[in-house]
Design brief:
Layout lengths: L5 E3 L21 H12 L4 E4 L1 H5 L3 H8 L1 H5 L3 E6 L5 H7 L7 H11 L3 E4 L1 H16 L16 H13 L7 H11 L4 H14 L9 E4 L2 H9 L7 E3 L8 H8 L11 H16 L2 H13 L7 H41 L4 H28 L2 H12 L3 H4 L3
Parallel strand pairs: 1-2, 1-5, 2-3, 3-4, 5-6
Amino acid sequence: MANTRDIVMNLGDPFYPLAHGDAAARQLSPTDVVARLLAYTLFAERVHVATRYVLSGGVLYEALRLAPQLLDTGLVSVDRYEGVDSFEDLARNHGGYSSDALPRAVWLDEHAAAVRSFRPSSQGAVFHALIMEDLGPGGALRLHIRGGQRGAAAARLDRIREQYATCPADIRERLVDVAAIHLPAHTTLFRRWAAMRYYLVPTLFDPPHLIRELPKSAVSLAGRADAPVNGRWTAPLDAGSPVEPFLHYLVQVPALARHDHPDAARQVIDTVLSVREGRRDARLSFSRTLDDASPDATDLRDVLRREMARQHRVTAHSSRRARSMQWIGVGIGLGSTAAGLGMSPELSTLLGLATTIAPAAVDGVIAHIQDRKRPWVLAYEEITQALSKPMFQQPT
């Protein structure tokens, strides 16, 4: 059986606010996030989200409250420290969460059917070691600061490195705090640098089937720092990819935004998931497209965009071919009528049957071939048709 892919979704990070349209992530509505999760599940076998942004009580938590079936079915997975048995334990004893996170953690324990475990100590140790290297003599971060090697800033960078050496390994914010004391003019650079390392380190641990969303600016900075990205990544798929038309359509479905009638929103979600269940070929196509992509592809959105354009071309070509074959069928029918005036009854009957059967048979064959080559287009058509019913289109 062919393998499908998982996506690690970037949402909630204050260093890299992600949004639909021009809004900042904190301004997204729960409906926006649910639409995005649903759109992603059409292409990915599972979507992974960060627990910290669920337990913080932001828009991601509210979205999952609106669509608990995404957690119940395991289509959306949340991460948890390896060796921690529950989210309640995580909120109480790990990660420095406030007491407000506890009821959210209990709710997660009730609904999260899929959990992605990771070792924070391993990733934290690599993160800390890389930052220490960046701050050291000849380090990449020093090269981005005027005077960082031998000038006035060098001594201050030495002090930052000395203080950061004693910081907890997995806290990127601490680097920014220390830098703000000694090199306040470069606080933004330190914040971006810490976020870049924070996003890239997990790629060292990702399994092959995982596609991780990385902020494009972080990857750009990594290139300048000579810090290659490991594994496959993509800029967020909410724009400039085949996910976009699904997202744009779903956020405009009135029933999904009926917060005063949560059952209406759940019916929309169930309808989309029902279409998804029957369109595994869309997820397989997503995986094959990535498999066929060049290892040098720098942004998988470009690869996916080209495949979506190809599927649309297949649709247009097949439609023209179907019309041409229908005209051939009509021509056969006209020929049978004329020939019937002077030919045997048997031949006239056969040609008459061809008039009736040929167009339908050709249409069926072409439709079958067409469908196999355009699963994303079909998924979109099925969703828009299913959600066009009046019960889903009533205004709020």
